[in-house]
């Protein structure tokens, strides 16, 4: 018992010293290095500014809401498990903007009845919005991402939205398609990860072009 | 195809690094010289670094250090409101603080809290980041003590715990963490002391995006096989893991030390093929489980996934199926528990695969240090079984495996299933448990089983639909983490002490060689058999039922 007490006291002393090293000097050292030009913008969240106003982050997907749903000019993100409750039914909306201050997946398994209902509802809503058959809606469009803040959509989901965005913004479909192409992040080294279309950057590009 | 090449890039990187890193770690733990900064530490804490310890003193050091670490981490959380960068989040409530303190000290890093609203930056850096380093260094130290047990003979000295702890932190973890933290910031990971940034989106609506000092913690979270995210969505959050590059680097980081330690082991015992024998077992099981999980996620079953057309629920577009399965397999095969996709939304077979990785006892390739010592203990069990078959006293690496050694090995591998099955069994019998689950039926049981599996194996990932804020879950999972960590450590140190005291027996024509193809095959079979015999009934009621549905 005496040995345990003696070792605990030694342990406390070394814990305090190593806390200064790994809990103060290390994280603040990394913070200090990340003030370097070229790193600072990343370290502070890759914020995108338009006319000096922060409109979002390159890395965070928050779904834009159309003022008039019949004339919806936006490319839309994937569903989010941390979506706001804009329809006021007491739970996260099936489709709609995320709350960027938290992050979460739905954690529902494929046999869960609520998830089946949510997928069904999203498929119908999106098919209606894009004026296509429900079977044409790609998987990522109807399933919530892991973070709730996925900045990307699949190229297939972007393609599905091209005709509507072109119609509403008055741009040609080819022009919109070119913008989709420009805002698609490819695989690292050609093999790492999957290609995805960055929704915020694409919407900003469409706005700028229109 | 790109997915397979991605695995190839990962394996090539590990193959290139494991030799220099493994040899470097061997030098770190055998060198007689102390760095200047280490001398300062030893003087400040008044330990004599050149005095080696008996296994009981070493064990008392580990226990005492873990105890004061838990107390300090608990206090830091409870005192959050008087610390800077708390953003008004207030004191962490006692149940969460208790569970989190044990969790991070035990290298589990289970999150029963939403970091963005509960933990401020000071608690994250001063409390959680510290234990990300030190719990990994404790695992390394215990592994080195066990290796010394095999290497040395006729001694009761196993090294000095404070020296091992300090060297592991200062010479291995800190420099690698600093380097890769800066690399991650360069690739887009955030490192901010602000609580977040207010934005007005393209549609004119305002929103708030949370920020945190993520890069410094992200790196050690993977490198130390810890797993507790600074954001709730963990490595699925784009600020922790923004692209294919960071995803591969993070997977590399969580595998690199456990893999390289097999080289360290081979170097220290004077025969590198002994290390490669263990590595081949780890690689075969890791590869087989990757194939299972990847296939399962690429061929979804269950009505929601079939309706959607793919198993994309709970996965990020930038990682896809391949990048998610690769991460999931590596995080559960090590004791990390970080996630870049939500395992709760995996198919029955895919989610069951991640669970089975943990049920192997975290040794494919396992956590930092813990993976090596768990595999060595399993090697002792395998040699014992082989000895029984041929009727000889078993030996391993020139040490006789007598009653004391086999008992210690058995205690090590039985601790985890005992606390796991007791905990999960009681939890499912308690009235009201179903109210804490996100899913009903077999998947609900899987959530409970996964929680106790993850806690008892110090993994920390979750079928996160389960709500674990009730006093029962907070306390029972806390105890599972504590016992799942400390009982094996004590048994391993006892084993190390008894091995070190023996003299080496020369190998004869009757000795089973542990470097050819036979031994790894036997060892693989033992790992699978022990897990299967212990857990098939529990798995049949959850993931297996779902996979066959």
Automatic annotation (TrEMBL), chain A:
The keyword Cytoplasm does not apply. It holds the Pfam family KdpC. The keyword RNA-binding does not apply. The chain crosses the membrane at residues 12-33. InterPro entries: KdpC (IPR003820). GO terms for cellular component: plasma membrane. Its main location: membrane. GO terms for molecular function: ATP binding; P-type potassium transmembrane transporter activity. It is found in: Cell membrane. It is a single-pass membrane protein. The system is composed of three essential subunits: KdpA, KdpB and KdpC. Part of the high-affinity ATP-driven potassium transport (or Kdp) system, which catalyzes the hydrolysis of ATP coupled with the electrogenic transport of potassium into the cytoplasm. This subunit acts as a catalytic chaperone that increases the ATP-binding affinity of the ATP-hydrolyzing subunit KdpB by the formation of a transient KdpB/KdpC/ATP ternary complex. HAMAP family: KdpC (MF_00276). This is Potassium-transporting ATPase KdpC subunit. The gene is kdpC.
UniProtKB/TrEMBL annotation, chain B:
InterPro entries: KdpA. Keywords: Cell membrane, Ion transport, Membrane, Potassium, Potassium transport, Transmembrane, Transmembrane helix, Transport. The keyword DNA repair does not apply. It is found in: Cell membrane. It holds the Pfam family KdpA. The keyword Disulfide bond does not apply. It is a multi-pass membrane protein. GO terms for cellular component: plasma membrane. The chain crosses the membrane at residues 58-76, 133-151, 172-193, 248-269, 276-296, 372-394, 406-430, 482-501, 522-545. Its main location: membrane. It comes from the Bacteria. GO terms for molecular function: P-type potassium transmembrane transporter activity; potassium ion binding. The system is composed of three essential subunits: KdpA, KdpB and KdpC. Part of the high-affinity ATP-driven potassium transport (or Kdp) system, which catalyzes the hydrolysis of ATP coupled with the electrogenic transport of potassium into the cytoplasm. This subunit binds the extracellular potassium ions and delivers the ions to the membrane domain of KdpB through an intramembrane tunnel. Belongs to the KdpA family. This is Potassium-transporting ATPase potassium-binding subunit. It comes from Actinophytocola xinjiangensis.
């Amino acid at each position: 018992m005496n040995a345990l007490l003696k070792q605990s006291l030694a342990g406390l002393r070394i814990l305090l010293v190593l806390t200064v090293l790994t809990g103060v000097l290390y994280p603040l050292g990394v913070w200090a290095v990340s003030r370097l030009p070229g790193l600072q913008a990343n370290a502070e969240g890759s914020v995108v500014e338009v006319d000096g106003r922060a409109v979002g982050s390159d890395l965070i997907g928050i779904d834009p809401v159309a003022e008039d749903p019949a004339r919806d000019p936006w490319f839309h993100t994937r569903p989010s498990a941390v979506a706001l409750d804009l329809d006021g039914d007491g739970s996260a909306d099936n489709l709609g903007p995320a709350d960027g201050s938290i992050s979460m997946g739905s954690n529902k398994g494929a046999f869960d009845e609520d998830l089946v209902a949510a997928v069904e509802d999203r498929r119908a809503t999106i098919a209606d919005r894009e004026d296509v058959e429900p079977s044409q809606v790609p998987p990522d469009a109807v399933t919530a991402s892991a973070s709730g803040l996925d900045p990307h959509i699949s190229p297939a989901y972007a393609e599905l939205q091209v005709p509507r965005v072109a119609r509403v913004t008055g741009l040609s479909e080819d022009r919109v398609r070119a913008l989709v192409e420009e805002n698609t992040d490819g695989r690292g080294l050609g093999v790492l990860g999957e290609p995805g279309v960055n929704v915020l950057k694409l919407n900003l590009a469409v706005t700028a072009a229109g | 195809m790109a997915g397979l090449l991605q695995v190839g890039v990962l394996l090539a990187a590990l193959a290139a690094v494991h030799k220099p890193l493994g040899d470097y770690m061997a030098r770190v733990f055998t060198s007689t010289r102390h760095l200047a900064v280490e001398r300062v530490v030893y003087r400040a804490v008044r330990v004599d670094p050149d005095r080696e310890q008996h296994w009981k003193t070493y064990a008392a050091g580990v226990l005492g250090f873990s105890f004061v670490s838990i107390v300090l981490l608990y206090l830091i959380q409870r005192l959050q409101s008087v610390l800077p960068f708390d953003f008004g989040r207030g004191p962490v409530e006692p149940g969460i603080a208790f569970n989190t303190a044990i969790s991070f000290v035990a290298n589990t890093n289970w999150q029963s809290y939403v970091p963005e609203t509960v933990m401020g930056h000071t608690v994250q850096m001063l409390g959680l980041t510290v234990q990300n380093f030190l719990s990994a260094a404790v695992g390394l130290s215990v592994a080195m003590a066990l290796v010394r047990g095999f290497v040395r003979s006729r001694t009761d000295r196993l090294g000095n715990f404070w020296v091992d702890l300090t060297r592991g932190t200062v010479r291995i973890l800190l420099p690698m963490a600093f380097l890769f933290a800066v690399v991650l910031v360069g690739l887009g990971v955030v490192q901010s002391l602000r609580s977040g940034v207010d934005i007005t989106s393209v549609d004119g609506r305002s929103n708030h995006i949370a920020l945190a000092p993520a890069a410094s913690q992200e790196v050690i979270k993977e490198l130390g096989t810890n797993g507790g995210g600074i954001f709730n969505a963990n490595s699925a959050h784009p600020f922790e893991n923004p692209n294919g590059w960071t995803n591969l680097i993070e997977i590399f980081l969580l595998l690199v030390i456990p893999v390289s330690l097999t080289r360290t082991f081979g170097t220290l015992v004077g025969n590198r093929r002994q290390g490669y024998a263990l590595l081949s077992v780890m690689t075969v099981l890791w590869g087989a489980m990757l194939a299972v999980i990847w296939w399962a996620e690429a061929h979804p079953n269950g009505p929601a996934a079939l309706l959607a057309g793919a198993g994309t629920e709970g996965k990020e577009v930038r990682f896809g199926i391949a990048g998610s399965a690769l991460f999931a397999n590596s995080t559960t095969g090590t004791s990390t528990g970080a996630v870049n996709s939500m395992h709760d939304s995996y198919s029955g077979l895919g989610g069951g695969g991640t669970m089975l990785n943990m049920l192997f006892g975290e040794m494919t390739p396992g956590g930092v240090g813990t993976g090596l010592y768990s595999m060595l203990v399993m090697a002792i069990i395998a040699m014992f079984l082989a000895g029984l078959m041929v009727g000889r006293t078993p030996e391993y690496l020139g040490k006789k495996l007598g009653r004391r050694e086999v008992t210690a090995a058995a205690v090590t591998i039985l601790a985890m299933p005992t606390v796991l099955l007791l905990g999960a069994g009681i939890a499912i019998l308690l009235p009201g448990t179903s109210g804490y689950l996100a899913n009903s039926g077999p998947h609900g049981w899987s959530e409970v089983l996964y929680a106790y599996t993850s806690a008892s194996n110090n993994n920390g990932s979750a079928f996160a639909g389960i709500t674990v804020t009730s006093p029962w879950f907070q306390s029972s999972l806390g105890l599972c983490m504590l016992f799942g960590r400390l009982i094996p450590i004590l048994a391993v140190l006892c084993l190390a002490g008894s091995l070190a005291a023996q003299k080496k027996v020369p190998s004869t024509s009757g000795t089973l060689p542990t470097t050819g193809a036979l031994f790894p095959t036997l060892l693989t079979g033992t790992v699978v058999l022990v897990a299967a015999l212990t857990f098939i009934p529990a798995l049949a009621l959850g993931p297996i039922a779902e996979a066959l549905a």
